[in-house]
Structures are given as structure tokens and as C-alpha cells.
Amino acid sequence: MTCSGVKPCANDEMVAISEIEFGDLVQIKKQLISVISLCKERGLLHSTKASELALALDPLPKDELPPSVPFTEEDAQDLDALTLAKAYFDLKEYDRAAYFLKGCCSQKAYFLYMYSRYLSGEKKKDDETVDSLGPLEKGQVRNEALRELRVELSKKHTAGELDGFTLYLYGVVLRKQDLLKEAVDVFVEAIHALPLHWGAWLELSNLVTNIEMLKSLSLPDCWVKDFFMAHMYTELQMIKEALQKYQSLIEAGFSKSTYIISQIAVAYHNIRDIDQALALFNELRDQDPYRIDNMDTFSNLLYVKSMKPELSYLAHNLVEIDKYRVETCCVIGNYYSLRSQHEKAALYFQRALKLNPRCLGAWTLMGHEYMEMKNTSAAIQAYRHAIEVNKRDYRAWYGLGQTYEILKMPFYCLYYYRKAHQLRPNDSRMLVALGETYEKLSQQVEAKKCYWRAYSVGDVEKMALLKLAKLHEQLNESDDAAQCYMLYIQDIFSCGEQLEHAEVSTALRYLGQYYFKNKLYHEASLCAQRCCDYNDAREEGKALLRQISQVRDQIETLPTCLFFVQLK
């Protein structure tokens, strides 16, 4: 398979991408330079990622630079119209660009003609959304150009007249009209026609819902596929596999790539390895201080760590760079949220959505803010929009579960928490939430399974064992309850948690009484002594120590009494 339209070799022979291995970094560099040029000619922004990868590789000598793509007769005839239209396109005068391209014959001109019409429809849709509706009602506005574009592109597709770029556009149109199965097929076809176009890979990644679907796709065997697989592993929460893939890419020669550093940082963010993710984002900021991409994810980490000064600095820095970027609005929203100014935070997330109604993070974060403001109906709408954008967003499913939990609708909770758990099977928070819901539905067996599983996968919040112990206690399963309380205390102390942990005293009180009832007075005494370290359990600890002392006195006097009885 060859890269349509790209001539990476100096001898003008097309090099099959599948033949190029990572060891041949010179050929990869040539291909990147060529595809960057092709994307820029067509007004596609995905050339940015290719440029980042190209910068990570060593520069080529002048005599090894790839030649420019030769003009066809059709290109020559359309040159003047295409040059003028591209100037209007760059000024975002899409209707004007399309007008001057109408009737052009070359593939390049046809793509820009159709793409201008598509972007014109998107711009009008966004303008109408901003002017007449709030962000929560954005789904009511449609791109009116999509239907005509689909009809025209479908005819060309049937006739086999679409190149890799136009196939990509056809796939986008199908996806926008919710024809997802057809869109997947067209994106795969676009990738086969032009494997180096990252935009087609990225659009395909948004439609892959699980690992089985990913394995079923027929994808070209080329070096770009490794980047796609690493990206998909991250999206599907297969973080171990993603990190291995990115490490192999670094070892292959992309060690200087800021794109890979950012993706690894996002992967660590997804598994809540906050310190590692923060270190990588700080490294990324050092290498690319004016970068805005992924800074909203960086701000999420700073928010979780309650790092107010650092989050404030990041927000001010991004405002200076570009205050009208979606990521900047999300960072400012997180800053106000950390300061508990939830109305202001929600306002900035709404601004982000006016700039990009498909911004997944903004929908989810706005849902969180509405939850803080006790506006459950708005929170539900925001979370549902997040799921529309990306059905793999576990945070939105989890947020819906929490919202319906507040509304005391446990069957709805169960549905949404199950969805979140399917996406994050090893996340203890999803399992604990499921366990709590099963408890409310009186399904204690299922609840116990969830709590134990949450402990087994690594309980982030250290609450699974405690809830399991309390459930055993309610069911009068005293031995099991005691075992869970003991494991809970060991877990808390081994992790270096503060001894004032909210429920340690509860566990110690129960264990003290349990050991006392089972006549294990030494263990009961130890628990009672530890209870005295906590204000809420001090009196009970002292009372238990007095009981133990009385029992011990009785035991010590018992042999003397028996001796006198025998004498009589």
C-alpha cells in the first residue's frame, strides 16, 4: 500500500508505508514532511501533530528533503481559483471560498470546495447556538449542509472517485448524521487510501467502543498504526498496554516528542498516578511553555491535589497566551471550583462549550459544578451531553449515578454505575458505588462481592473494607465483620494515613467488644487502649478497660475460692 499523493523518495518512487520500519527514521521523516504539506494545502489542522512528530526527529540534509508533489493538468487549470479560495478559507470566509471553487475539477480543489461548505454549516450552527440557546440545548441546532454533502459524496463514493482526504470528510459527515457503522467503514477506507493522515485515525478512534471492535478492524500495517493503538489503549483504559506502546515508540526514536510525553501524562492521569502525571506535565511545560493542548487535564491534577497557587499561575499564564481557547476556559473553571465559587466555575465551562460544543471535559466538569450547586436536573443534562460526545467517558456515567443517588432512585443508579464499572473495571470508586446501591436494593450478597472486589483491586478511598465490615455487622456475621475491621485498620496504618481517620475509632470499638465477648481479653485491652486516643471513642474505651479489669480480677480470685471450697 502506498501513501496517495505523497512522494517521499528523491528518486520519485512511491515507498510503501508498510515496508517502512521504525529503524528507517529518515523515510518516516520524509513522509511526515510530505503529509504536513498536503494537510496544510487543504486547510486541515491535523498537520500540527505530524509537525510535532517531525520536530522530534533529526533534520534532513537539503538534498534528502522530499520533492514537492507534482502538478496534474487539472491542478494547473484550477491553480488561480484554488489560490484565491484558500486565501478566503484561511480568513474563515467559507461560503466565499466555496463559491470560487465551484466547477473546479482537481481532487485538491474538490476537497476544499466540500470542506468549505461543511465548515460553513458548522460555523452557522455554532453561531446560532451562541446567539439563541444556552449550551445545554445545543443538540437542537443542526448543520443544514450535512444532508446535501452526504448525497453528493455518496455518489462520488459509489463511483470510486474519492481520494483519502475526501473519504475522511465523507466519514465526518456520516458521523455527524449518526450513521456510525457506515462512518467506521469509510474511515477505515480513508486510512487505507492515506495512512499518514492522522485526522482519519483520530475520527475512527472516537467510534471504537471496546477492545473487541478494535481487534475486528482491518487496518493497514504501518508505523502510524502503533501511534493509533497506543491512543486507543489509553482511551479504552488499558493503561498498562498504552504505556508499553509509548515506551516502545520512545525507544524507536521519538524520545523528544512532546506529543508522546503528553499522552503518557494523560495515561498516568487516567490511572490516578497523580505525582507521575504532574511530573510529566511540568516537563512538558518546560519543553513547550506556550502549549495549551492538554492543559485542562493538567489543571484537573492540580485541582485534585488542591494546589491553588500552581492552578492560579497556570490560569493566568494561559489567559496571557490565549484566553479564548477551550482549554483556558476549563482551567479557569477548575480554579474557581477549587475556591468553591461554583457559579463562576460553571460560567467558564459554559464559555468553553460555546467555543466547542463537543468539548467532553467541559460537559463533565459543568455537571460536577451543577451537582455542587444542587441543580440535579442541569447536572443530568450536562452528563448526558458528555455521553453523547463520548460514550466511553466513565466520569459522566458515574456522575449520572451520583445524581440519581441524590434523587433516591437506586435502580437508575445501578444502571449508570454499572456502565461506569464496565468502562473502569478496576476502579474501586465504581465498585464501592455499586456496592452501596446494591445495599439500598437489599441485595447484600452482590454488595459484599463489590466491596471485596474494590478492596482487592486497590481501594483508593480506603472505604470498601469499612463498608463491608458494617454490612457483615448488620447481618450479625460477627467473625467476618471483625476480620474486615482488622484488615481495615491494618490498611489505614500501613499506608501512613493519619490516626484521626474518621472511622478508625468505629473499627476499634467493634473489635474491642468482639474480642471481649470471645474472652480474648489481651486483644480487647489493646483495642480499648487505642480507643482512648480518639475523642469519640474515649469513654467507651475506658468503660471496656474497666470491664476487662473486673473480669480479670474475678478470674484471679476464682482459684482461691476453689481452694477454700475443697478444704470444707
Automatic annotation (TrEMBL):
Lineage: superkingdom: Eukaryota
TPR repeats: 326-359, 360-393
Keyword Cell cycle belongs to the record: yes
Gene Ontology BP terms: anaphase-promoting complex-dependent catabolic process; cell division; positive regulation of mitotic metaphase/anaphase transition; protein ubiquitination
Pfam families in the cross-refs: ANAPC8 (PF04049), TPR_11 (PF13414), TPR_8 (PF13181)
Keywords: Cell cycle, Cell division, Mitosis, Repeat, TPR repeat, Ubl conjugation pathway
Biological pathway: Protein modification; protein ubiquitination
SMART domains xref list: TPR (SM00028)
One Gene Ontology cellular component annotation held by this UniProt entry: anaphase-promoting complex
Cdc23 domain residues: 27-265
Family assignment from sequence similarity: Belongs to the APC8/CDC23 family.
Protein name listed in UniProt: Cyclosome subunit 8
